[in-house]
Amino acid sequence: MPHEKLTRMANQIATFFATQPGADQAERVAAHLNDFWGPEMRAELKAHAAEDDSDLSPLVKEAIPLI
């Protein structure tokens, strides 16, 4: 899957969780990705983040180590 699509999807998930109360939004983003994304998708997102994370939201960047 192209990294642009993964980035867009991850950022959309982060946008949702950013509106939720509490201080654990990054953990919730990571939990969602761990629960609903396949291992290949998670690996692709992590590889992209390691290469260039400039298009990822701050919340996704914070969630990456938890994936």
User: In angstroms, what is the radius of gyration?
Assistant: 11 Å
The number of distinct helices, counting runs of at least 4 residues, comes to 4
Shape: globular
Stretches with pLDDT under 50, minimum 5 residues? none
Oligomer kind: single chain
Number of strands: 0
Descriptive report:
By secondary structure, the chain is mainly alpha-helical. Helix content is 70%, strand content 0%. The longest helix is centred in the N-terminal third of the chain and has 16 residues, at 3-18.
Write a brief caption for the model.
By secondary structure, the protein is mainly α.
Secondary-structure blueprint of this entry?
Blueprint: H1 3-18, H2 25-36, H3 39-51, H4 58-63
Keywords:
single chain; 67 residues; mainly alpha; 4 helices; globular
